[in-house]
Amino acid sequence: MKMDKLLSDKGFTLLEMILVLSVVCVLLLFGGAIVSKNKTAFIYQMKIIRENITETQIKAVSEKDRKQIQFLSDRVLIDDKILKYPKEMQCSFLGFHFTEKGTISKAGTTTCTMEGITRKMVFQLGSGQSDIR
């Protein structure tokens, strides 16, 4: 009678626990990979924008001309170029220009989001360096 009572107790077997833990591990692995892929694509897009802005700064110096930069919600206007963001990406408004010496007219920060991930692009006074945070 004692043996029957032991086998009929409610609970999980070792096999059931291993199966549940395996499923949880697989879900965490693939879920983390999707977030990581989105984050990588987002940061890559931000770096492309920053490279284009740096090229425009160099152009301002070489052409001895003022170059305008304007971040809008769905695109960034870089002098005579328009860079559209991926449809999932949006940035806050920011406008400034590079002088003919390559310095920035005013410091500023734009906040960009894409699929729940947020990053800031900061433009500093002086040499007009930018940083993604």
From TrEMBL:
This protein's source sits in the domain of life called Bacteria
A GO biological-process term: establishment of competence for transformation
Q: Which InterPro entries match?
A: ComGD, N_methyl_site
Name the keywords, alphabetized: Membrane, Transmembrane, Transmembrane helix
Looking at the UniProt entry, the stretches that span the membrane are 12-35
Keyword ATP-binding on entry: no
Q: Which NCBIfam families match?
A: IV_pilin_GFxxxE
For this entry, the protein name equals: Prepilin-type N-terminal cleavage/methylation domain-containing protein
Instruction: State the organism named in the record.
Output: Amedibacterium intestinale
